[in-house]
Amino acid sequence: MEKVKLLWSRTNSGDYPIHELDDGKLKDCVYLQQLKITGQQLPVTKYLNKGFNVGSSLLINGYIHPDVDKLSFNLLINNDDEDDDVALHFNPRFYENEVVRNTYKNEDWGEEERSGGFPLSAGSYFSLKINCEKKGFEFFINGKLFEVYDHRIKPKKITHLELEGAMALDLILYKTIIDEDDMNKSTSSSSSSDSENEDNNIPAPIGFHDAPPPPTTNIMSSIWGETNDGKFLIYDPYCGDINEFFHGIYLQQFKVKNDDDTIKLKFDKKFSPGSSIIINGYSKSDAERFELNLFTKEKINGDKMKNIALHFNPRFTEYEIVRNTYDNDDWGEEERSGGFPLTVDRNYSIKIDCEDKGFRIFIDSKEFTFYNHRLSPDNINKMEIEGETFIHSAFYKTV
Questions:
Q1: CATH number at residue 59
Q2: CA atoms within 13 A on the CB side of 208
Q3: What Rg, from alpha-carbon coordinates, does the chain have?
Q4: Closest CA to 247 of 279, 290, 212, 291
Q5: Structural domain containing residue 170
Q6: Dmax of the chain from CA atoms?
Q7: Phi, psi (degrees; rounded to nearest 5) at 196
Q8: Which strand (E) or helix (H) includes residue 296?
Q9: Tens-place pLDDT, residues 103-134
Q10: 299-314 burial code (b ≥16 CB/10 A, e <16)
Q11: Structure pTM?
Q12: Calpha distance 340→363 (Å, rounded)
């Protein structure tokens, strides 16, 4: 069977996209880099260590604060002094309801471009994708094409990304095309020390993975299934609904409606040992608590009971995460050990693995606790989330 080159990246915020190279790029290599942003204050400047030539892209996901005035996304050249050229100045101005695009070259600003309307809102989440094409930059806001900006400086000279404004960033994903020799250098450097990787913002490990081509499905542009070492997760809130079997794995991406007081998500396939739930969300600045409940469908004495196999309840006012089970109209004994690794006004990732004896729970890719089954997980059929949290994306995986 023909092999397909795939690229995977595991970061300390979770596993990120596994890319299949299409026929037009098999002679080259995709370089994928998640830029470290967690806990950093804006303004911030990030080095794009493979440049930003044609074929490159940036995906920036975040939250815009309610009191925002304006935001700036700048692609810089050199970054050696204050007079660096700016190949792209992308400047949403909320007080004018316009997105200004411009270039700063030879100590002078060019002519502004302001067309396209204003698809951003204060106090909301956004996704901005910048694609570098031969003619210019393509901008996608919340998954929709916004505008195209013609190059005024050759994009291959770009060295840095600069971000500024009242926003909280969740993800910055940088992708570019490089030759295979450079890729081999990048993969060998990924085995170096953690401090070196952190200084260069290179996730570790990162590299090629040869595997038989997966079946063609509607998700191939965003997601690839399980590899030999079990990686499967992708975070892409705008890739649409996913309900697909591939390589023996069933992956379901839920359509989340954050406007509802209670987010109700139903599992399409049987929940059992081997199943996993991944929730990427944001703890609101005024959060006191939120809860995640796994409900069962079962009958007791002929009556339908709404039991809760797992009640996962972060309480910010108590700095504890309560776990419990609701069985036959009665709560069991609470479990509160493990500390409190969550923070208000921050993004988080929660992963729940269902094993034979219980649930293994991870927060931000670190194991948090193990909760023994008190009810059979085979009867779990839905998940509900409520409280002071915003859900970016939620996935369910089973075998």
A1: 2.60.120.200
A2: 18
A3: 23
A4: 212
A5: 29-178
A6: 81
A7: -65, -40
A8: strand 290-296
A9: 999 889 999 999 999 999 998 888 899 999 99
A10: eeeeeebebbbbbbbb
A11: 0.51
A12: 10
